[in-house]
Amino acid sequence: MRGLVKHMSADGNSWEWPFRCTNCNQPFPTSGFPYRCEKCGGLYDYQDPISFDPVQSARPGRRSIERYRRSFPLPVNVDFVSLGEGDTPLLSHRISSREVFFKCEHLNPTGSFKDRGSAVLVTALIAAGIKEAVEDSSGNAGASLSAYAARAGIQVRIFVPEYASGPKQSQIDAFGAQVVRIPGPRSATAEAVQREAEGGIAYASHAYLPHGIAGMATIAFEIEEQLQGAPGTVITPVGQGTLLLGLHRGFRALQSAGVIDRIPALVGVQASACAPLWAIFSGGASGLSVASEGETVAEGVRIIQPLRGDAILQAVGESGGRMIAVDEENILKGRDALARIGLYVEPTSALVIAALEDVLESCPDPIVLILTGSGFKALEG
Ligand SMILES: [Zn+2]
Question: What is the rounded average pLDDT of the residues 320-326?
Fold first, then answer.
């Protein structure tokens, strides 16, 4: 039986995961690695807010998110699985006489922001004694998990929608993971991997499991460090929304630690073809009737039922931000505009520049745009 008894928490006690079911409050078990509550099927989430330790985090010259380890839900005596993720550049650029900043998450080890979550999640798998796992992904998360699993010596099988870009599947394959292609929409892939998980194999889901959210919070920590203060606005693509949630909790952690006074307005961007959270934000629950799982070049955000949708909308509202939907033509125009200033990103990343025009007048400075994934592995569009 897998267990965590040999691990220790920072206070010297035996380790327990700091998660509870959001529905029935059941703690995450000390043995096994369920992707959702064993009692009621609810989602696990952090029982306490993510924290930020200004002293431990100030370790300059180290290119990895490991310096934020105290913010992660990990026992202290497990080696952190790292490929040098994080510490990505924050580039300034002038648009319509305003200075904006690009957080270059496409420059992470496997070419996407997902590496921050994978580093934390795969370290957690090691802590739980797991040697084999499955995951589903439209591409970036699968490639990222495969790389970190390879680094840690864990065997993974990645379920991908058949429409996912060839380069992403090749990347997963190159890391030694098995790629399982599933025809039909993204939701068909999710159903296929859940059937596998019911058979008892660990489902290392970046969407269901809460571990990776603390990894995403490090983007907020770095932005604050690079700007020497809080941004006014952060614009980010939203699919499952773990990135936006991580940003929100990261900025909240900085605020609780007294590092910043206020959190930025969080602006979440979806593709009009599949924009369920934009639909609810704009039209309330009835807005969902217009949301569809349509095809989009922004394949990374083609998620019709984001698992933590309520939490994401709450975070956006609480921050004074908003949701925006962008059509296909403007996504591709945005991608081309970014390339012409030297930033080669995938169409999903271009959502943020396409949305910028909508918020430029109304959102406070400094404005940070998160560039989530590399153009090297995107489909031609
Ligand atoms: Zn439960």
Answer: 95
Pairing of strands 178-182, 155-161: parallel
What is the per-residue pLDDT across 38-61, written as a single tens digit (0 to 9) for each? 999 999 999 999 999 988 777 666
For 295, the token pair is: 């095809």
> Pick from 113, 88, 121, 320: which is nearest to 206 by CA?
121
Distance 133 CA to ligand 1 centre (A): 22
Question: Contact at 8 Å (CB) between 261 and 255?
Answer: yes
Which residue blocks in the chain are alpha helix, DSSP H? 54-57, 114-127, 140-152, 166-174, 186-198, 211-227, 242-256, 276-283, 309-318, 328-339, 347-359
Rounded to the nearest angstrom, the distance between the alpha carbon of 226 and the centre of ligand 1 is 39
Q: What are phi and psi of 134, to 5 degrees?
A: -120, 160
To the nearest 10 degrees (0 to 180), the angle between helices 347-359 and 328-339 is 100
- What's the whole-model pTM score? 0.94
Q: Tell me how far the alpha carbon of residue 29 lies from the centroid of ligand 1, in angstroms.
A: 11
Nearest CA among 54, 59, 95, 107 for reference residue 224: 54
Q: Span 77-103, mean pLDDT?
A: 94
State in Å: Cα 37 to ligand 1 middle.
5
Give CA 123 to chain center in angstroms.
Answer: 16
Average confidence (pLDDT) over 136-162: 92
Q: State the pairing for strand pair 132-136/202-203.
A: parallel
Q: For 69-84, b where at least 16 C-beta lie within 10 A, e where not — what string?
A: bebbbbbeebeebbbe
